[in-house]
Amino acid sequence: MATKTSSAELSQRALAKHRKRFLRFFPEGFKDQRHIDWEVTYKMIAHDLWVELLSEKQYQALLRGRNYGEIVNRALRVEAKTNFLFSFEKMALRDGVKTREGAKTFSEGLFQLLHEGGSLRERFVQWIVSVGELPRKKSRVLSWPVLTLFPFIAQPTKHIIMKPTAMQNAAFELGYDLDYSSKPNFHTYERLLHLSELIKVELADLNPRKHLDTQSFLYVIGSAEYERLSSEG
What we know:
It is a single chain. The chain is mainly alpha-helical. It folds into two domains: 7-31 and 160-232, no CATH class; 43-141, no CATH class. It contains twelve helices and no strands. Helix 4 crosses helix 6 (100-115) and helix 9 packs across helix 11. The longest helix is centred in the N-terminal third of the chain and has 22 residues, at 33-54. The protein is globular. It starts with 11 loop residues before the first helix and ends with a helix.
């Protein structure tokens, strides 16, 4: 990513406050067993299943055989291991890939993002187009969580998931300009990746893994779930 990291883009006071809060939940930081249990294990189970079912070699072979339905079935098995999507998003996704044409659009678009050449911008924009073209019954398929879940699970060192409310709250708390738009776009996604990079630099002594641990740090800052836990504590 071309954007350079700069600590000036974050409020150091806010970062120190939220670091302290994070360590109250997880005294041993990202290696804390509670952090692993709450925030890491299910993501790694999903990632390992992705590698088992849809490694680049397997994915490519299924594409060559035009086995789009099988690709979709495997991807949905992985999604079921996570809690990132709301029920209406799960339903919209399943409706969108139910037809052969929808499965083809999804399968080819995601493979291009993950494994083909070209800039991240070009590949991500095309992925937005692909998800936007999926058939719709009730809810629209194109949402930030649906768009970013599979790249994050498949390649957590390269991609991050956008949970809009939590990430907006976290960015606001840290004084960071996410330039958020509810309409998925590459610029906002690039800003989120950049924020994750900044967190990795600022918390280097805790040895966070991008974007796996940095995402959980931002989620702890921005989610209502951890806000409730804080008030209860």
